[in-house]
Amino acid sequence: MSLDLSAAWETVRRMLNGFAAALPRVVLGLVVVVLFFLVAKGVRALIRRNAQRRGEHRTLELAIGRLAQVAILVVGVLIAVTAAFPSFTPANLVSTLGIGGVAIGFAFKDIFQNFLAGLLILVTRPFRVGDQIRYKDYEGTVEDIQTRATYLKTYDGRRVIIPNGELYTNSVTVNTAFSRRRWQYDVGIGYGDDVERARTIILDALQQAQDVEPDPKADVIVVELAGSSVNLRARWWTKSPMGDGLAAQDRVLTAVKQALTAAGIDLPFPTRQILFHDQTEATDGDRGRQREGWPAGEGEVPEARGIAAALLARHDARGDGANGGARVGR
Fold first, then answer.
1. Cis peptide before 216 (omega within 30 of 0)
2. How many angstroms separate the CA atoms of 133 and 80, rounded?
3. CA triplet 232, 243, 240: central angle to 5 degrees?
4. Most distant CA pair in the chain, distance
5. Contacts of 273 (CB under 8 A, 6+ apart)
């Protein structure tokens, strides 16, 4: 089999001629890419310098700078490819990458979602760097808001990275959205104590405590008649940061406890009343005569309860029940 060198040489010659003809267009395309790269870099640097002067919007402007740089580079590459290969159009690229673009979109769905959510957070600013927020079980100070996630420093010195998609689609409590924040604590007093007197004592302690804001004014309200105490709710306002609130709460509770104790106001412990029932009574099983707990009605007192009543009367006669001891049902 003879080798046709003339045909092979003709093919090589056509390729070289085609490359030589396309070389100026390729060089032009490279020049276009370099120019757009320099323009994109300059735009990003300009936005970054502007962001450094305006610290409040720095994160948003840096994100916009990155987006602008990427967009300018993409446009530059498309123009360069069109200049180097006139038969190529952006429509050809879109049709070629159609199916691949859909696959990439599904693969990077979460990344795109967090990216868009990050941009919306930076634009709408529901919270800012330095704010103290609470999201689900996490609470702390916002360190940084990036296009993918938000960095949170908890009060115990740990870092939590929360995807922006979650922060944008779920409820977030911003503790420092306003300059002041209300705190409250329930204080129980005895049923025999004067409610108005206790209210006045607690209110005076609130007004004199350090770090409690004078406006809005503190107040004390009755919130519950509990099993062993009357519960009063003390409410006061402090500056929004958690550190100020905790410091004020420490001073308030210390002052309230000392003031109530000095005034002789009872701070009762929870108490429980236990009623004994002797299961050996003759009336057990007779639903018409059986009595649970404190007996009621008329009729003969069962023997076991009669003994208990006699023991209780003997204790009362000696004064053993004067100190608030437990009583047996009678």
1. yes
2. 47
3. 70
4. 137
5. 326
Where do we find the tokens 């009336």? 283
Mention every residue, 6+ apart, whose C-beta is less than 8 A from residue 259: 201, 202, 204, 205
pLDDT tens digit string along 44-81?
A: 777 777 766 655 556 666 667 777 777 788 777 777 77
In this structure, which amino acid lies at residue 316?
Answer: D
| Per-residue CA distances from 312 to 173, 305, 316 (Å) | 57, 10, 6
Asked if residue 176 lies in contact with residue 170, where contact means CB atoms within 8 angstroms, the answer is no
User: pLDDT tens digit string along 96-105?
Assistant: 555 555 556 6
Is pTM beyond 0.70? Reply is no
Ranges under pLDDT 50 in the chain: 1-2, 294-297, 304, 321-330
Q: Which amino acid is at 65?
A: G
Name the CA dihedral angle for 243, 248, 253, 258, rounded to a multiple of 10 degrees: 130
Could you tell me which of 112, 244, 138, 226 has the C-alpha nearest to residue 182?
Answer: 244
Please count the CA atoms within 13 angstroms of the CA of 321 that sit on its side-chain side. 10
